[in-house]
Amino acid sequence: MNRYRTKIIFSFALIFSTGSYSQTKAPSNDVCAVADHFQDFIGKRVAFRASVKSDGIERTILVNVNGDWCSHAIVPVENPKDPHSKEAASKLAQAIFTGRPGTLDKRVTGVFGGVISQGKPEDYMMAPGLRVAVLTLDSVDDLHIESISVGK
User: Fold this and answer.
1) 24-147 maps to which CATH number?
2) First vs last C-alpha separation in the chain
3) Where are the alpha helices (DSSP H) in the chain?
4) What is the pLDDT of residue 17?
5) Mean pLDDT (whole number) for 38-42
6) Angle at alpha carbon of residue 37, lines to 80 and 24, rounded to 5°
């Protein structure tokens, strides 16, 4: 019996360590539920459909797809030591830098997955005392880029 349990545990560990994160998964959370109560999700893996807002220089945040503002946004970051995270961050960067840098000329949406943590506001050029929800990316799937007319 103990041997059987060990095989099951090993099988689950193997599945999660072999790159299953890169498969498209149905979002399991709402971006506002995570952003507004991110401290309840610290250390947990979440996935949600979100819209990307970026100046194309130094600030990128994930917000609700339907345009409703949450009390917080979520800052996506890369873990440079994790190949899944590097791949996910690269997909996001390619979308942000399609056309003009940033999201002024486009709407970028997708399903973002990763682990939630709390960041230091000064690391993200935000006012001291703010609580910053951070998503360490491990997957970016179902990306859509829609052009938006910008006045010239």
Assistant:
1) 2.40.50.140
2) 70
3) 2-17, 31-36, 83-96
4) 34
5) 93
6) 50
